[in-house]
Protein: ATP-binding cassette domain-containing protein
Amino acid sequence: ELDVAERTARFLGSKIEPLAIHAVDGVSLSIGRGEVLGLVGESGCGKSTLGRMVAGLTTPSEGHIRFRDADVASLTGAAAREAALKIQMVFQDPMSSLNPRLRVDEIVGEAPRVHGIVPRKETAAYVDDILSRCGLDPSVRRRYPHQFSGGQRARIGIARALAVKPDFIVCDESVAALDVSIQAQVLNLFMRLREELNLTYLFISHDLGVVEHISDRIAVMYLGRLVELGTAEDLMARPNHPYTQALVAEIPTFETKKKQYSAIKGEIPSPMNPPPGCHFHPRCPHAHPRCKAERPTLREVAPGRFSACHLNDEGAASTAA
Ligand code: SF4
Ligand code: MG
Structure:
């Protein structure tokens, strides 16, 4: 069986300290240091679960998450605390993830103080510096979350994650609640911070149009399985898997924002009771009898490009619509 995490680690070459994931129905991938891996799929496809596992908030029932060559679940004591700080999560809805009773300086300053990342008397200056990095005027430090706009709250959520000096950030729908123009500003902030701080991101979104802008590579999930993985540019230009082809064709424009993925026929089936064989077969325009009976495995169809579709075996891989 192909070890996709191993192969992608090799594909990433000189980049060190990859994060490797083997979890969720055979999902296997690795993320290189300084890389942005976009993870895209419809709601219920398992991408948030995967993100929570990477961030240590959910333990995988099978498989494992390796960070710097250590199985995260097996770490104890100081090593476990270190890993928990080094991998941070920026959540979907800043309003519900920010404690409304805490001021901004408490929200951002609490974890670094508790974990001894900065001496207590330097915390205020430290918080001001992080707020500035995140595009917030330090004078807002005494305010409460409800006194900010959605975009500013997103920045506070990012500042809180950065305050413990992480190497790796899981962003789960971090810009989904924002207006398009604000989304672009926050995505630019993510990209700038990555440059300045040499961060690695797992960037999760239902919106391929968002993921495309920030990712080096893109992973596409469908009903708990990884169906395609490749460099962002190549995957967008030449989607291999029929599901990815549909997503690429359906990137919402500003006007059609509300009806994402409407051209993919049929409803997304229940993740609890997925169709047999290829999970995508009830909705796939290329489905054939084998697709209902046999699960396609993720195969390397070009260097660094993986796809799980029987059409690749049969030498009849379709090209982008
Ligand atoms: Fe479509 Fe069959 Fe490929 Fe699944 S395996 S994506 S049903 S052609
Ligand atoms: Mg989700």
